[in-house]
Amino acid sequence: MTVRNIEHIQGAVAHAWRDVRWVDTIGSTNAELLATGSPGSVLIADEQTAGKGRMGRRWVSPKGSQLALSVLVDAPSSAPLGLASLAAGLAVTDVVPEAALKWPNDALLGGKKFAGILSEVDFSSAPPRVVIGIGINVAWRAEDLPVEGATSLNLERIEVDFDEFAVDLLTALARRLEQWAQGDGQLLEDYRRVCESVGKHVRLTRAEGDVEGTVEGVNAAGEILIGGTAYSAGDVTHLRPA
What we know:
The structure is a single chain. The chain is α+β, with helices and mostly antiparallel strands. It is 24% helix and 33% strand. The mean pLDDT is 92.
C-alpha cells in the first residue's frame, strides 16, 4: 500500500496542517522534518531506511507496509512536553478504536504492537519545536514482522484505505495536540481510559535500573506511577501475574 493521491490528503487536512509532503524513500522522517520543516509541517514516507525508535532502536519496514509520518509543531509554553507523545498515541486509538495503549504510546491489538511513536524536542529554537514520528503497520506478511509480539492492521483483519487512513490520523492528531496545547483535561481522561498499563504488574526498563511494580496511574505530566514514584521515561513490559 502507498499514498495514491497526496493532493487529496493535503486538501483534506489543510485546516490543520499547512504543509504536507510525501516522499518515496527517506532515512528518517523525524530527522528530515527537523532539518527542513517548519511548525505545521507533515512528512509522509513510503519507506524509512534509518527510522528511529525509543531507547535508540532502529525502525525499518518493507516498502509499502507501513504508514510512516512525522509532524512538527511548536511546544506550548505551559503544557508538559511529555504529554505530546501520549496525545499521539491516543490519536492512533481514535482511528483504530479496537486498539489499546501500553505506556507511554505503544499501540496494541490483542496485546501485540502495531504502531510506534517517537517524539523529539528541538530546544535550539524559540519556542522549542516538537517533532512526532508515527509508524503504523498497515500491510505486512506475518513472516516479515520484525519482532515477536508485533502485528499489523491487515493481520488483525482491519482493512483501511491508505489515503483516507492518513487523513483520519492527521485529523485526530491535530485535535489531540490542540488539547495538549490548551491544557484540556479531556486528553488525559481519554488516555487513561485506553491505557492498558494502569493496574498491571510491569517491569519499567530504565538506563538507571529496572523497576517492577503495579502501575497506579498516569499523572498530569503524563508520567507513570509505580510504587508511589513518578517516572517520565522507560520501556514498559506487562508481566504475567505470579
